[in-house]
Amino acid sequence: MSHKASLTSFTQDELYRLMAYMREHDPQLHAMALLSLNHGMRRGEILNLEPKAFSEGRITFKRLKGSMPCSAQKVRAHEVPEYNEAQAVDRLLKQSRSVRPDGRVLLFDLGETQDAAERQINRLMVKYCAAVCIPRHKAHWSSFKHTCGKMLSPILGATGLQVHLGHVEIKNSLVYSRDSADEVEAKLDALRAQVASAGGD
């Protein structure tokens, strides 16, 4: 069965369980997840990050797929350690790292090539999601970006989300205001439970 990336997002409970597990077992991937959650970063965008992308508590980077670049968004602290992006990034910036053959110094090191790093991330996502009982169809990196969009859509609105995620077209931002298939199923389950409860009175 294929599990290609789709518009899936984590529930609050799923997200916390996954972030807590990653923070304990894989601080590097935990930091990557926070960047995706806070800035809607794609996997390839994160893998291309250099330390110089961070300055004065902010991040600037180029987005892929023709999106607008991110210009100096805040790297945010959080009172809950699992969501403390500033702390996770600061820890990484203090680590030593090697120079790549092309002369770049990358923030993250998961493989000799980007393809190898992406395959490693795919494997780890399946492993970590399984460890905390998250459904297999959500076990891909895009779920972090989609979770970011779903969380911020009711707060920022479509135009604010467009700016934050670098969407050129507003229709890409409006997608996050729609219910996902999982959300529809959850609402149907709740309705059925309510009907069953009323029938038992």
List keywords for this structure.
single chain; 201 residues; 5% strand; 8 helices; hpI Integrase, Chain A; mainly alpha; 53% helix
Descriptive notes:
The protein has 201 residues and is mainly alpha-helical. It has a single domain (12-199), classed as hpI Integrase, Chain A. It has eight helices and three strands. A three-stranded antiparallel β-sheet has the order 1-2-3, with no helix packed on it. Strand 1 (54-55) and strand 2 form a beta hairpin. Helix 1 (12-25) runs antiparallel to helix 2 (27-39) and helix 2 (27-39) packs across helix 4.
Main β sheet profile: 3 strands, antiparallel
The rounded Rg comes to: 18 Å
What low-confidence regions span 5 or more consecutive residues with pLDDT below 50? 1-5
Class from secondary-structure proportions: mainly alpha
**Measured distance between first and last alpha carbons:** 42 Å
CATH class: Mainly Alpha
Number of DSSP-assigned strands: 3
Mean pLDDT: 89
Q: Indicate the CATH architecture.
A: Orthogonal Bundle
Helices and strands, in order, run as HHHEEEHHHHH
Helix content: 40-55%
Q: How is this structure best summarized?
A:
The protein is mainly alpha-helical and 201 residues long. The longest helix is centred in the last third of the chain and has 24 residues, at 142-165.
